[in-house]
User: What shape does this take?
Amino acid sequence: MRYSQAVYSHSQEVNEPLIIELGSGTEGVQEASDIPERMKRRGVPNLPCVPEITVVRHYTRLSQMNFGVDTGTYPLGSCTMKYNPKLNDELASLEGFSMLHPKQEESTAQGALELLWRLETFLKELTGMDAVTLEPAAGSQGELTGMLITKAYFRERGETGRRKVLIPDTAHGSNFASANMAGFEVVTIPSRNGELDPGIVSRYLGTDTAAFMITVPNTLGIFESNILTINRMVHDAGALAYFDGANMNALLGRVKPGDLGFDIAHLNTHKTFSTPHGGGGPGAGPVCVKKFLEVYLPVPRLRRKEDGSLYWQHHLPRSVGRVREGYGNFGVLLRAYAYMRRLGLEGLSQVSRDAVLISNYAAKRLSQRYLLPFPEKPRKHEFVVSAKGTGKRALEIAKGILEYGHAPTVYFPQIVEEALMVEFTETETKREIDEYTDALLELPGRDLSASPGSTSVSKLDEAGAARRPVLSWRELGVGSK
Amino acid sequence: MQTDGLEHQYLALSKRDREEMMAFLGIETVDTLFSDVPMVSHFEDAALNRSPAEEPEVYREVRDLSKRNLTCADAPCFLPGSPRIHYIPAAVQVLAGRGEFLTSYTPYQPEISQGVLQALFEYQSMVSELTALDVVNASHYTYGTSLGEAALMAHRTNSRRKIVVCGAVDPERLEVLRTYASGKSLIIKETPFDASSGRVNLEAALSEIDQDTSLVYLESPNYFGIVDEQAPELSQEAHSKGALFCQGFDLVSLALYAPPGELGADIAVGEGVGYPPMYGGPSLGVFATRKEYVRNIPGRLVGMTSDAHGKRGYVITLQTREQHIRREKATSNITTNSAVLAIACAVYLSLLGYSGLRRVALKVHENALLAAQELAKVPGARLRLSGHFYQDFVMTLPYEDDRISRSLAGHGILGPLPLPAFYGLPHSWLFGTNELMTHEHLERLMTAIREAGTP
Assistant: This one.
């Protein structure tokens, strides 16, 4: 199982040229007579001028120089790169959805609102929460929303001294950044033996704590076994417990964050609910809360009238406000809905069981050669191994494995040296998992100095790119003006 | 207890695979692997169906829901503002929707992800050309969140707290700005528009810009559709007081109008083109700035570099600004963005080129002029504002708002929208047009409006 990218080489230096290098200029432009001189565009922007076939070949070739879940195994830790069902894309392309305008009267969009309503019901059930907003455009926007809710809640209670948000050292970077954006001070909590320790946590909790943001299972793929105690302590300190749902794939249909004592939970539809990552986005980051926080959810809120029709409520004085225009990433949310409908509760709980089974299976196989920290603890949907002691660095392994498929996440979480963070998901076959782990087991014994050798380019100079940033073709002087 | 016997197209393990894996792990049941989870929750059947549903069933159910909507593909659409409706050439979705792009993650392993990286570099380049600004990031969620990030960036740059919002700004966008500003307790000062032209009341705006001002924001075209030529005066005043100037723009209109970079903008925000409205999301928030601010910019940037053999390649660069490295000191919390829409935008702009984009913009503008002209023929109707408009315009109509609304709905027309009372322009309607407006659409609109005046 080796992977070689299809590459057109234009020259020794360039694979596929920039589109602007394939043709630029203009075909002659019409004048707009009524535009006042002062407002007119004078300079001609340097845009491509090529026939349609050139555009089609160009972007087809670029796509062939790219790796996706459709191409092969993509085991990035905490990213949940599962199969993105084609049915979902087909449904999102239905004109009855794709050509809906958010400023339409609600009466002309009842089908869309009904779908969102049902999705809200699903998410409340899966998280054990009382209310949900589908507005946030991504997980990190969900985090920001959750933090703003926290802020609004304490402001109303007059507890403005609660300035601190506690975050474990295993957390994703976005948690820290989101808390900061909401105006909180961030305190990092050290973990012990790969988990949060109630004794350590208690030293940080106080009257200045606003919230504890916790990812469960954590990024080592370990369930926080003291979570009930910790959430009780958080509440005893008068603070809120925030659940980062990045790793919800491990808990689907088994345990609800609400039952674990969390007050706020965000989900990532592009992780847990199979919506495509799109090379970085879009996603959606619904936020679910317990009843006492519902009034702070962003506007607009979806409501049902007595006659059964649905509408948007825009004016809610205690809300944190609007986090984006429109009504959430509808095109993403409808994919998540279709996914949940296809699986049902039974299917969703099998998702988490399979994801966890695969993860433990692969972790045990890899522990033959790599160090698996805290081997006595079962993993959930993902695991982290260390390349330390294999004779190779994690980065070398990552570049080497690109010849077999995609690399795991490397050097994260930072508490494990030379970390390789692996998450296969339930949509990988046993054959592919075996082949991929076999490759990882072989790699430390191979010469990786020229890796990756079968991708469209060899190892790239990232340091040079940051030292002298070239961020557009303007800076290259290519194409004709 | 679950038997792990379920077979489903979305689950890649067979019952036998599961048994083999359990045997390898020396466990009897998968439940053993959850022994550290202190509870099993109870799930209600009523909320979510228990059993899986077959593909045809889900397809039919969701398609039936789609049929309950009236779309702007079928109905004449005069809705103003964002998202803009434009025709999307067939090749855009085919190319941007290719699985290799759509199902990939953020290109943190650049060697295997050159396709997304080069496409995003091309997006950055084309938007840089259109805005006449050096640096464009690899996208935000929406126009409004780009604006929110602009406010936070200005605050990082000059540590000041006051944001001066000039004239008529889209109210939804303004709400988003307020939310983003609230985290850092930034203060928003709105300045009035000129009620006769629809432009910024320049005197009022200039007097609000002071030594505490962090950012001055102007939208052009603004909420009323007016292209405001006073950007240079505002940017000059902002700069003289040490503030940044940000312009909200319409990407397609930049084929006709002077770009933000030439009007003195330090930051420009807007929305992309090349993807369907999709009930407002996903959308593509465009963010452009000058190179001097590059280390303060939020979001991802793609840069050009070379590989070990001197071959050209692309990477995500200046990552030390980003959350996964800098954590709470990052320039933004953004990670997931709108990358695949940025790719669609690059494909759209490549297909049209400058000439094609200009043709679209001219047609949009021509249709706006035509619709305004026709509407002005209704006795008592008049163009409310004297400023130059591009795509949207405000008309005062001589009939009761309710009657007009009912008549428009009765004729299956989407938009226009009555201006909220807050603006102090009674009986005024905000119309939007696009290049897809036909004579039939316009006739239907005219019939609906005339009927509103018939007792």
Q: What stands out?
A: Residues 354-452 of chain B form a domain with the Aspartate Aminotransferase, domain 1 fold (CATH 3.90.1150.10). Residues 339-375 of chain B form the longest helix (37 residues). Chain B has a mean pLDDT of 96.
